Amino acid sequence: MKKSLVLLISLIFVAASLLAACGTGGNASKPGNDGQQTAGNGEGNGKTNNEPFEITIRHTQVGESKKFRLGLLEDVVKKTEAAVPGLKIKLDGVDGEVNRKERLRGEMAAGKPPEVFDVMGSPDAELYAKEGLMLDLTPILDELGLTDKFTTLVPFTHGGKIYGIPIGGSIEGYFYNKEYFEQKGYQIPKTLTELEALAEKIKAEGKFPFAQASKDAWIPLMTTNNLWSYYAGPEITYGFKTGESKWTDENIVKAVAKHQEWVQKGYFKKGELGFEYADMRNQVITGEAIMMMDGSWANSVFRDPEQAGNMVGKIGFFNMPPVHAGDPVVVMQDANNGYGFSSAVAKDSRKLQAVKEFIRHMWTEEMQLRGLKEDGVLPAMKMDLNQMKTVSDDPLMQDIFKATSEIGTSFPAFDALVQAEVNTSLSTGIQQVISGEIDPAKMLANLQAVQDAANQAAQ
After folding, report:
1. Which of 21, 197, 404, 449 is the most exposed place for a label (fewest CB within 10 A)?
2. How many angstroms separate the CA atoms of 384 and 405, rounded?
3. 62-91 tens-digit pLDDT
4. Topology of domain 171-333+393-458, per CATH?
């Protein structure tokens, strides 16, 4: 058994009991026109098979904050069903973290993922593709004329083949209470020192400078990741997997220590380790906290009266400022989340056609602009910035467009560059740092040991 599969099975062993069985059709197969294996279904004699069949789309558009994205997906589903005789698409909504760290890992270990599923391009898609569990989309994208239409397919490209498609792009930065800033005469900080001085003033006024929710570790790690990318440079994260970089680097330690210092100074509300993602947004909406580090995708919450109430129109956005005035602005910017497809689809020509139609209808300029307008998701497909600006005149979206234009150096989120077990160890570690259970240097030393073991296992 390959080392990567052994690792995958060990990661999900505890969660495996939660999984629902998902079977695939057992039709005899024959070579298809595009070189894939396709199921015999009577199409070869010129007849159309209208017999009902089903595919499942596993998505993570669950909860009030993702209702617009779900609406877009549902419209694509209707178009896809109409284009393929007999097709019925089952939508299976699962929380993003549960899907990534429990459900999908278990299904992959069992060799039975859904036909279509939400997936992170790197490192997840690479691991699954190595085991032959993901459909090679290279010929399909070429057939549909989409290969060169994306800002990047790098996170989903492994061994020269494409194994997934990004659904949108994003940047990370600070949402802030613009009305509060104006009332107090505050300006957007231009350095980290100015950001900290601003945090001290806000704290003295009885507010929390930053909203935070750390029950899921990826949320506070947005702050940590951006800090170490300033202190140590964004290129350092690329070297962990190769051994060229060390988590024990003094500048990484300094960045994690800065995060812990902010916790100890009371810049975040006490009890953050028990707060859910939605709790963090509510701290801003209620005026309890003034700033919040989050992905640009969160703008949809603050533009929706049902979720943000009278705070609609009162929230702005700015990039985390550099350490020194005049330094380039460094920002997490990537397109690492999207959809992948089971390799088993290639054995059934009708399911393969359904996948092609889903791709044809989902990845269009119309849908990308609709996602931007309705939900504030930056396009994954190439699009002129001025064209994007004309889609939405919302002030918050204009702030995000401005922040994007100010980026000097961008980098992908750390979890796209390290192994799954390293991500898990860092997630546990940052929560321990936040609780004060461990100091940053010791946590990072422990993390480096996990990194060394993961690098060794990959050789």
Report:
1. 21
2. 12
3. 998 899 999 999 999 999 999 999 999 999
4. D-Maltodextrin-Binding Protein; domain 2 (3.40.190)
